[in-house]
Design brief:
The protein is mainly α. Among the domains are: 52 residues, Orthogonal Bundle (Arc Repressor Mutant, subunit A), CATH 1.10.10; 84 residues. The chain is built from 13 helices and no strands. The N and C termini lie far apart (62 Å).
């Protein structure tokens, strides 16, 4: 039995729904497999945190809002199903689909969504009272999201890596490891859609001067005009005059695509004027 099969059993084991024989087999495997052991630990932490939450019954107004949101979501999904946008420009990570194919990530994401719902209901009734247990659970959910994102960024499938980039945008405070993983994807991923998705994710972190410097250092490494243009747009939007040198070098390179060259020259002009 391979690891994928064991990982499918982890949520059932944590929930106490796995029969004794299967549970013993799973535990025996986990003792010798670091990857499955980490998955079991992460999901177990979240499950225990959820078990400690007080039951909260939503009031009628919240129930009505939930139904309205659900109906709007369903209508949007039906509309999206009838339309297939085919763009030659920048690819958005949502185009790859947001629901993971592997069962263990489905379980992890489901638990994270359940935790988010529980947190919302709890916060609705306890806004004025600080709750250390709630803060701890929030941190655990945040950590789980990051674990999922980092794991999927290492997947062999480009679509999985794009979804991993998407999950990273749900992390409120990405740590250094998450930032470096996104920068690595931007600089080294063989798939242009992954690199574009990583650019979009890093744009949300561009208020950090270190991230902007890393993006400027990344510009000469790119071989796609789409990625070059996306990066230069970030520099201009953030009024990052420190990126002018990298854009000038790109504009002067005879092998630079003409559209990227023109964007570089226009960006340099805007940044010079904003000094």
């Amino acid at each position: 039995m391979n690891c994928d099969r064991f990982r499918e059993q982890i949520p059932e084991c944590v929930a106490g729904r796995l029969d004794a024989a299967a549970r013993e087999t799973l535990i025996a495997h986990v003792e010798t497999c670091a990857g499955c052991r980490a998955d079991l630990a992460e999901i177990g932490v979240l499950w225990r945190g959820l078990a400690g939450l007080p039951a909260a019954e939503p009031d009628p107004a919240m129930r009505l809002r939930f139904r309205e949101v659900l109906e709007a979501y369903q209508a949007g999904m039906e509309q999206a199903g009838g339309k297939q946008e085919n763009t030659a420009g920048r690819a958005h990570w949502l185009a790859a689909g947001w629901w993971p194919a592997r069962a263990v990530w489905q379980a992890a994401l489901s638990l994270a969504l359940l935790a988010a719902g529980a947190l919302g209901a709890h916060l609705f009734t306890r806004l004025a009272a600080p709750n250390p247990e709630l803060a701890q659970l929030q941190a655990q959910v945040e950590n789980l999201r990051q674990v999922v994102a980092l794991s999927m960024l290492q997947d062999q499938s480009p679509s999985s890596r794009i979804r991993g980039v998407g999950y990273s945008t749900q992390v409120a405070r990405p740590d250094r490891e998450m930032e470096q993983a996104l920068l690595y994807a931007l600089n080294h991923d063989a798939n242009i859609n992954v690199r574009l998705s990583a650019t979009d994710a890093l744009e949300k972190l561009a208020s950090n001067p270190e991230i902007r410097r890393a993006l400027a250092d990344s510009l000469p490494l790119q071989d796609s005009p789409l990625v070059e243009i996306a990066l230069m747009d970030i520099f201009v939007e953030n009024h990052d005059s420190g990126s002018i040198a990298a854009m000038q070098k790109l504009a002067q390179d005879p092998q630079t695509d003409e559209s990227a060259r023109q964007r570089a020259l226009a960006g340099i002009q805007k940044l010079e004027a904003s000094k």
